[in-house]
C-alpha cells in the first residue's frame, strides 16, 4: 500500500466519526497538498500523507497531553509506526514549537521530534493555513482571523497565533512563490 493511501485510511478511521469537521479540514489540507505535487517531486506523497494526518492528535482516543501535534506524532511513531518524516511534519506542523512553548511542552516536542526539511514544513503550513475548518480554500489572513475568532486572543491558541503570525505568513508566502511560474 502506498504511503498516501495508508495515511488517508488511518486519518479517516481516526477522525471521520468522532470529529467530522476536523476530518473535512484534514481532507481539504490534503487536497491543497496535492496541488503542490509538481513542485515537490519525490516528496509529494510525503507531504500528502502529513497533510491528511496533521490533525490526527485531536482524535479523542489519542489525547494524552491535549496538544494535538505532540499527541498525534507520538501516536504515529509509537502505535502506527509511521514514516519518520511524516511523523516529524505532524509534530512540527504550523509552528507547533511556538504553541508548545505556550503549553510548557517545547522541550518534549523538540527532544522527541526533529524538525523536517524547511521547504516541506513551509508547504504543510501553506496547506493548513489556506484551508478552512470545513476543508475549503481560503487565504492565510482569513484563516488566522478565523482561528483567533474561534479561540480568542487571550487563549493559549490565541497567544500562539499572535506570536507565530509572522512565521505562518512567511512560510505561506515562500510556498506560494514556489508555485508561481
Can you describe what's shown?
The mean pLDDT is 97. The protein is globular. The longest helix is centred in the last third of the chain and has 24 residues, at 156-179. It has one domain. The termini are far apart. The chain has helices at 3-15, 20-35, 37-40, 44-53, 68-78, 84-91, 96-103, 106-112, 118-129, 140-151, 156-179. It has 181 residues and is mainly α.
What are the salient characteristics of this protein?
globular; 11 helices; 181 residues; mainly alpha; single chain
List the helices and strands and how they pair.
Layout: H1 3-15, H2 20-35, H3 37-40, H4 44-53, H5 68-78, H6 84-91, H7 96-103, H8 106-112, H9 118-129, H10 140-151, H11 156-179
Helix pairs in contact: 1-2, 1-4, 2-4, 2-9, 4-6, 5-6, 7-8, 7-11, 9-11, 10-11
Domain HD: 22-113
Organism: Streptodolium elevatio
Pfam families: HD (PF01966)
